[in-house]
Each structure stands twice: as structure tokens, then as C-alpha cells.
Amino acid sequence: MYDASSSSISLFIALLIASGLFKLRRNV
Questions:
Q1: Helix (H) or strand (E) holding 10
Q2: Phi and psi at residue 2, in whole multiples of 5°?
Q3: Residue among 11, 12, 10, 16 nearest 24 (CA)
Q4: For position 26, what pLDDT does the model report?
Q5: CA distances from 5 to 2, 11, 21, 23, 26 (A)
Q6: How high does pLDDT run on average in the chain?
Q7: pLDDT of residue 12
Q8: Measured between alpha carbons, how far is 27 from 4 in angstroms, rounded to an integer?
């Protein structure tokens, strides 16, 4: 079972990584 806090943190990290990759793609 996953805790709500851990799942939210993982989602936040995933969003940060996705946004970072998107910015890198746009810059290139």
C-alpha cells in the first residue's frame, strides 16, 4: 500500500522531470 504523501511526492518529482525535459527540448 502506498501513502498519500509518498504518491504525491512521486507525482511532483515526475512533473518536475517532465517539465525539465520539455524545456530542454524547446531550447534545442
A1: helix 4-27
A2: -100, 145
A3: 16
A4: 84
A5: 8, 10, 24, 27, 32
A6: 86
A7: 94
A8: 35
Tell me the three cell numbers of residue 1.
500500500
**Which residue bears the cell 525535459?**
21
The phi, psi pair for 3, rounded to 5°, reads -80, 150
One-letter amino acid at 19 equals: S
Cα→Cα distances 20→1, 3, 28, Å: 29, 26, 12
pLDDT tens profile 4-14 = 788 889 999 99
Cell numbers for 12:
511532483
Q: What is the mean pLDDT of residues 19-27?
A: 89
Whole-structure pTM over 0.90, yes or no? no
